[in-house]
Amino acid sequence: MSGKMVFFDIDGTLLDHDKKLPVSTQQAIRNLKRVGHGVAIATGRGPFMFKELREQLEIDSFVSYNGQYAVWKDKPVFQNPLQPELLQELTEYADENEHPLVYMDVETMRSNKDYHVYIEESISTLKVPHPAHDAEYFRGRDIYQTLVFCTIEEEPLYRERFPNLDFIRWHPLSMDVLPLGGSKARGIEALINQIGISKDDVYAFGDYLNDIEMLQFVGTGIAMGNSPDIVKRAAKHVTRDVSEDGILYGLKMVRLL
Q: What is the model's pTM?
């Protein structure tokens, strides 16, 4: 690849606060590719949750599940599922505390409860419906990410009980559960090693807590203007809010466009 490689988070970065793709962002992605740069997605979502977006932007490479499943030109290049034993322990502990879980693999996601208001309230912010119920879905499958639904006050219960898992809060009622050390940075590292590009030639745009490692790892990290201060401090540059043509402005700021 002769150009640079640019990774984009989805929620709050590619998609605005209403989960819409700004026209300026779509045009910017098209122009990035036209001038010879590579474009990929780096998200906490599962592949099935952004298939239409990939098709709309004509992107065939991505890092999903916060780095646990990476794809280059439609072919998996890195897979880091959760250990079945830890999933079993987590399931039992969450059940004891009456906290629901959602299991996520490459194809879909399933809840261990038929319905729970915590799941509905948080998942609905992603503009996707409450997952179907299958309490045994985690058995015999590669689960790359699990969601545990609990309040911020209950969060320490899990961090103390499971030192071999990473927890990243993405909603007041939900946390992502990842293998220890799992991050978007790890998935990006695996992908760029596969294609033989230096991280100095890699750029990334993100806006939230699960983007911090990514913004620190790549050669040039750009935080969206709508990011919390802790995320902005992890980046080399801060662009405008996603709703104020933040992607286009940021790409011009770092002279990729």
A: 0.92
What are 197's two structure tokens? Answer: 């590009």
Helices 246-253 and 23-34: crossing angle in degrees, nearest 10, is 30
227-254: buried (b, 16+ CB within 10 Å) or exposed (e) per residue? beeebbebbeebbbbbeebbbbbbbeeb
Can you list the positions of beta strands (E) in 9-53? 38-42
- Domains of the chain are 5-79+182-253 (3.40.50.1000), 84-179 (3.30.1240.10)
pLDDT (tens digit per residue) in 74-111: 999 999 999 999 999 999 999 999 999 999 999 999 99
> Which residues have C-beta within 8 Å of that of residue 77, sequence separation ≥ 6?
70, 71, 190, 191, 194
Distance CA(133)–CA(115), nearest Å, equals: 8
Q: Which of 9, 16, 166, 245 is catalytic?
A: 9
Residue 2 has pLDDT above 70, yes or no: no
CA pair distance 141, 228, nearest whole angstrom: 35
Residues 126/12/71/120 CA torsion (nearest 10 deg):
-10
SS3 185: helix
**Catalytic residue list contains 166:** no
Tell me which H or E stretch contains 33: helix 23-34
Q: What angle do CA 179, 185, 190 make, to 5 degrees?
A: 85
Amino acid 3: pLDDT:
87
Q: Is 255 helix (H, G, I), strand (E, B) or coil?
A: coil
Phi, psi of 77 (to 5 degrees): -125, -10
Contact 237, 206 (CB under 8 A): no
